[in-house]
Design goal:
The chain contains 11 helices and 4 strands; from the N terminus they run αββααααααααβααβ. It has a two-stranded antiparallel ribbon. It has a two-stranded antiparallel ribbon with strand order 3-4. Strand 1 and strand 2 form a beta hairpin. Helix 2 packs across helix 9 and helix 7 crosses helix 9. The longest helix is centred in the N-terminal third of the chain and has 38 residues. It starts with a helix and ends in a 22-residue tail after the last strand.
């Protein structure tokens, strides 16, 4: 009997093994077959030596930005847009992080742009400047969502010193960006020229428009960084507005929720920010995270200026994905 039992056991084991191999093979083939059919349903088979497909995103015939229509049937413009669409589509982690942060920071940026009478599309400048990372700092020393250099920040009313750097203050830096953008538009009357000057500086764009006898910044021969900048802006808008079209599938619970605060107006010095935080039932790290513009361990405030410090409410200190709401319903799949 023992050999018969061993035979049956071996048969059952072999059957299980074959079933497992078949199931695994089907599981691996389904995504491949699905991706093939979604790329071209008229093609019966696509030969590939790897078990996945990489598709080029479709370049539209035209795009609009801040009320301006850009014709992308012209070959040079189409290819510049194609490059940036592919970059945003396949820089997966960076684009996903930007999408998640947009849920937190667009509700702050959009009303400020509207209050200044500026096009809503200008929020995508912050997207390409910093990937909506409020702690972003460039090698040249530009910081914040809008990447102000120290001198420009001071010119547009921001305080920048060793203890206070308002380039990290989201509302105040956005206000300063609005003042800059309005002044630039008065100069050019064209929002893509404004965008190009935000990257290269108004003196360079103005001189090149004159030298090259052009009216549009997209028609200029510029250094590659600035030439790409305008189309990175257009691509950022395309992907963030319709993430599913470019393969980004997010659920509401995966977005970063806005933080809610109460405020405390301080008109004198704070000797130790850690003690101040403790007084308000916060850790030093939580206080600094909520007020990135506080750059030291104290606030000397010799001029007795009023500073509004944000104190996160208890419910904002803990993550509750079920309560997260999508600022834009098109961002999510649920």
């Amino acid at each position: 009997m023992k050999p018969i039992m061993q035979h049956h056991a071996l048969a059952r084991y072999t059957s299980y093994l074959i079933t497992a191999v078949i199931s695994l093979s089907i599981g691996l083939m389904i995504p491949l077959l699905y991706s093939h059919s979604s790329i071209d349903r008229t093609t019966e088979a696509i030969e590939s030596e790897v078990p996945y497909c990489v598709a080029s995103p479709q370049v539209p015939a035209s795009v609009s930005f801040a009320g301006q229509e850009i014709d992308l049937t012209r070959c040079d413009l189409r290819e510049r847009m194609d490059r940036e669409l592919m970059a945003f589509t396949y820089m997966h982690s960076s684009t996903l992080l930007t999408m998640k942060r947009a849920n937190r920071y667009f509700p702050v940026i959009e009303p400020i742009l509207k209050a200044h009478g500026l096009p809503d599309d200008l929020k995508y400048l912050a997207v390409i400047e910093s990937s909506l990372n409020p702690k972003a700092k460039s090698p040249a020393g530009a910081v914040g969502l809008w990447q102000f250099m120290p001198a420009t920040a001071k010119e547009y009313g921001l305080e920048v010193n060793n203890e206070v750097d308002e380039r990290y203050h989201i509302e105040k830096e956005t206000e300063a960006a609005c003042r800059y953008l309005k002044a630039s538009y008065e100069r050019y009357g064209n929002w893509l020229c404004v965008a190009a000057s935000y990257n290269a500086g108004p003196a360079r764009i103005s001189s090149q428009l004159k030298l090259q006898m052009a009216e549009q910044a997209v028609d200029l021969w510029l250094v590659e960084e600035t030439s790409r900048y305008m189309f990175r802006l257009l691509a950022a808008k395309a992907v963030v507005e319709q993430p599913r079209r470019y393969g980004f599938l997010l659920k509401k619970e995966q977005l970063y929720p806005p933080v809610t605060y109460r405020t405390d107006t301080v008109r004198g010095p704070i000797d130790t920010l850690a003690r101040y935080a403790q007084k308000h039932q916060l850790s030093y790290a939580q206080l600094k995270e909520a007020n990135l513009w506080l750059r030291s361990t104290r606030l000397t405030n010799r001029l007795r200026r009023p500073y509004v410090i944000q104190l996160p409410l208890p419910e904002s200190l803990y993550y509750d994905p079920k309560q997260t709401r999508s600022h834009n319903p098109s961002w999510v799949i649920d």
